User: What shape does this take?
Amino acid sequence: MRFRLLLPLPLLALAACKVGPDYQRPQSAMAADWLEPASTAPVSADWWRQFGDAQLTALVERALASSPDIRQAKARIAEARAMREAAQGGRMPLVTMTRDTSLNRISENGQFPASQIPGFDPEFPLIDSGFDANWEMDTWGRASREVERARAMEQAAEWARRDAVVSLTAEVARTYVDFRLAQEQLAAARTEQDAAAKLAELADMRARAGEGSRLEAEQATAQREVSSAALAQAEADVAASAYRLAALVGTPPEQLVPGLLASSGPVPTAPDTVASGIRSDLLERRPDIRRAEMELAAATAGIGVAKADLYPRFTLQGSIGLQAQSPDDLLTGESLRYLAGGFFRWPLFNFGRVRAQIRAADAKADGAAAAYEAAIAKALAESEGAANRFAASARSGSNAATSLQREDQAFTLARLLFGKGETNRLQLEQARLRLAQSQRQEAQARAGKAGAAIALYKALGGAWQGEGEGK
Assistant: This one.
């Protein structure tokens, strides 16, 4: 009796063992300081509010609430969570309730000599009701590693959702900037087209009167056609960007596009500075890095799962119930039946399949480690590059604004001189055309700065913290 009680103790000790490596985050050799000039203030979570555009904020919030991409990511989290709960349940005993009613007949000519037993009826009913229990002991930590892997995959799914949030907010903001830019470009294109048409008319009149060359008239006519084509393209750009916004938000176009087209406004003004935080915080803030890390953790746990197959698996089983031929006899003590025992399984000859699976798990972990390192390198390159482009866009925007100011002053002067009769209509329309072209360039520069700011916010991993963590 003492021996039977002590026999499971070594098995319980084995249950505390876990084969395979424990996950540890790889060390990163990234430098502490940014290469590009950057503010180390905390990164803004709801960064789109920095643009001061109420419609942009409304579109982003609407997209976060209804985008199919976010719903898909949430569904993957629910799936991964269920898989983790299933893995945790695998560590517990499995208890099954059974109820079986059958009519049986034993062959009189078979191995059991039913016909030779006096009074034995070879045909009889049988009622069986009870409970079966089965528990595989977690020797070598196989089930524990399964839970670790499932938990890591659940966390990877959550980081994938946060990555989708970052990408979605940036794409909505970028498309909204394109929409407002297209509207400004359309207004400037209309002015250009009108000025080019009048210049072509004036050049033709001068050529007919012998005051100008036919070459100048033909060049002015060609410029008018170019302006007309640009006008048509600007109109198409406005509609196309509105439809893209509807797709990003996840709503039918008829529910969003008419309202967008009826609205008007300038390109959102980007902030002059973007807080970049501490460089090493990218490891914690970038969802794609965290997702790659969790996938590495899952692959590491998978090595332990594969290695556990090298060793025996111990299972305890038991069954208790009542069995009788008549319902009246089912609840009597004589109908009690039970079974208790255990067994183990050990694949002695598997022709190298287990070790091949271990090598495959090792290779998968090596690939996940490389993917993690690649995610870090990508994040650093994107962040530094985005910071560089943002700084360059600020300089470009300043130059474009100065050029626009000078062209506006030139047009004001041309109009004043035309009113005094000191210049002709041709010079006035030329000044108006140059002003419209400068307005288009300045709008492009403002949109470029806004786009660069959005790209920097995205590279820094902003947006998902506003949902709770890191807020």
In short: The CA atoms of residues 76 and 114 lie 59 Å apart.
